[in-house]
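Bump. Still looking for Protein EXORDIUM-like 2 structure tokens.
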Amino acid sequence: MAFNYYFTTLAFLLCFLAPSFAALVQEQPLVLKYHNGILLKGNITVNLIWYGQFTPIQRSIIVDFINSLNSKGAPLPSTSSWWKTTEKYRGGSSSLSVGHQILHEEYTLGKILKSQHLIALASKTHFAVSSINVVLTAKDVVVDGFCMSKCGTHGSTKSGSGRGTYIWVGNSDLQCPGQCAWPFHQPIYGPQTPPLIAPNGDVGVDGMVINLATLFANTVTNPFNSGYFQGPPTAPLEAVSACTGQFGSGSYPGYPGRVLVDKVTGASFNAYGVNGRKYMLPAMWDPQSSACKTLV
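Sorry for the wait, here they are.
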């Protein structure tokens, strides 16, 4: 079963409605109900399957992001402080660490993939309850539904006597950066305001980090469609997808909010990571306040 990270046309149109109308929308209660299912907690291994051509620098941006989720060495606001919000969901904390990395640079399944291909790629390394298998597709790989209705997917599949989880995220650099790498690219819909500068100098990969962050949080809090979500189980609002488009304080649809700016590069970010990295991370729903929480 897969749960898509949706960016529908309606959502984009809402992003550019007047702020006064947005305030009315935000007044609606946001409560993610717990459906008494299993959450992913404890030490979780993240296995990465790279499909297509990624440079070593691109891979290091994403690996550093994952390692930053549990690092205590970065200054505040940190990537790890963002991840700590998941501890407020029932069951305690989860710690993510990079496990196997598999390179599929030869496009062995072609450059047009369907859902079954993603599951086949995710199955290249063992599924387990204590792991998340992540498929990352390069900028020239077309995935069924990519850009049209989703920027990534998380789901689960049976593995022997148990179940395992997987994530897919695509690099939108050539296909739909205005949809899946916003706010680092001009949006597809609405006023064409100047985009923010990507913190790692790669619009496609910095966009992938936003989508990965979304799906990691959604996965650990709703791995088998019986955890935390609002709405129908076939199209749920989850931990971060319930807060789409919010990155800093004062955000409203179409405006990401007040974030930090690197004085040297002019790049925008809201979280520090390991190895001097800076990232832009989306708001996450906080079960204690029943509101979307940003780092800045």
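Confidence is low (pLDDT under 50) at residues 6-26.

Edit: fixed formatting.
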